[in-house]
Amino acid sequence: MKRRYKLYAVVAVLLVLAVLIGYRAGNQNFQLNGSKTEEAIASQDETIKRETETAVSMLNAINGKIEKGEMTSAKGQKLAADLLRELRYGKDGQGYFWADTTKGVNVVLYGNKDVEGKNRMNDKVNGVEYIKQIIAQGTNGGGFTDYFFPKKGETEAKAKRAYSVEFKPFGWVIGTGYYLEDVK
To answer: What is the pTM of this model?
Structure first.
């Protein structure tokens, strides 16, 4: 009789572990269900890529002034950071940009002075060094990264997808993204 209860206890523990592992894997999974969702994701991907390219175009204009000697590199980079910090897109201007150096030092993160200037290279959310991935995609010609990050003002990390690209003249990786739960 005692063996049977021990066996049931072991089976119950294994079932709970299997459910927890399945839940965690499900939350970290970015598989898409249905063609409408896939189309919405593809549309959002195109939007964030295009918006990032527009932000880089602005940085190119500032860098042109630096190259012409119209402003110093320091003043140009400060102007670029200030403009990038305020640059918005999308419905109600909710889309924003961030920039990190290729070494992981944050330059711009929607005006979050607690983060700007700090190295985020080894920052982890859900055990993933997401900045390393974003920088790797950005310095490899630009690309998308799936990761988890809390929404502004929240603490719970949620599934997010970003596009990043390197702006070589400044040694910055520029990015923007969206939360998968917001895709309609």
So the answer is: 0.78
